[in-house]
Amino acid sequence: IRAGWGRRRKGRVKKMIWTLGIVFCIVVLVIGCSKKENSRKENIEEQKYIKTFGEYCVSKQWIENKEHSTDDMFFYVKEGTEKQRQPDNIAVSIGENKYSKEESERFKEAIQQQISEQLSGYSDVTLTASGFQSGDNTVYLFTVAENDTGLITNQYYIVGEKKYCLVQESNFDKSEECDEVTKSLVESFKWK
Q1: Given phi > 0 = left and psi -120 to 50 = alpha, else beta, which region is 111?
Q2: What are phi and psi of 110, to 5 degrees?
Q3: Distance from CA of residue 77 to its chain's centroid?
Q4: What SS3 state is found at 107?
Q5: Are 158 and 141 in contact (CB under 8 A)?
Q6: Count of H helices and E strands in the chain?
């Protein structure tokens, strides 16, 4: 009796191991496919813009506002808000400066001084500055908060060789979406 029981037990263990192995493979395939699907969705949900100075991506829910854009400055607003008096918006422009990439800290100091001088006549405004790396780019972020109106303006300076790309976010509604779209644009930016 015991010998037969042992064979049946071994048979059950083998079936259980095979079943667990198959379940494990199915789980791995499902997780792998869902990750690929999610990354495809992210790419589908962004529009790539290629300009003379570089390229970047913007959420497809945000459109280039041709009415306010020029050859040198490109405005993006959430679709459906383009006719509002003050929609949240993102402006992308480029400029030149005398600083090499290696002198980016001096560039940051010059921009901070310039913004501080522009704000010197206003008492209810706060300026903060920080910097970070995004891929190969050095980025400086200057945030101007107008305490009385609630308007927050983020200016991201993406440093190039004696040039910069300014990505300016005007966030009237304190929208997290506006912040996220702007950050995504900055992170996707590539110089030509």
Answers
A1: alpha
A2: -65, -45
A3: 15
A4: helix
A5: no
A6: 3, 10
